Amino acid sequence: MNYFSQPKGAVKPVEKPAADIRVAAPVMQTKTADVLSTFGPGMVITGNIVCAGGLQIFGRVSGEIHAAQLVICEGAKVEGKIVAQDAVIQGEFKGTIHGNTVKLQGTAVVDGEIYNRALTIEQNAQFEGVARRLDRPVDAPSAERAEAAAPVQPLLSPESVG
Questions:
Q1: Which pTM was predicted?
Q2: Does the pLDDT of residue 131 top 90, yes or no?
Q3: 57 touches 71 (CB < 8 A)
Q4: Please, how many CA atoms are within 13 Å of residue 70, restricted to the half-sphere of its CB?
């Protein structure tokens, strides 16, 4: 049967789809380093943070931060200790930074110690403290370490649901 040469008004036969057709969805694999977490400008966090991927901070954090890549954005305020492979500071930071590459951008205000393998300080960045060279590179936190640092507790037990 030719569908293209049917006369006007003719109805095409409807083909029944096979009942057992299964479409295989492609398996998506994401690297933890590609995952980006963001703390918004209204967030205030007190405590330790472990992030196996990238982390952007727009709010306020007081505590220890371990991340693969860290950006303290303009307007953010962070106080404590940072351990990151790559750290970019645009906002305010007070404490100690351990990083392979540390960049203080023009809007950065940093007070403390920076232990690094490569340090960039842009014009107009404010840095008060000491910078020292790291002997060995900083490793990114693994996904297993991030999960071990913050065990997930269910809000409801299976017995209470029902």
A1: 0.69
A2: yes
A3: yes
A4: 34
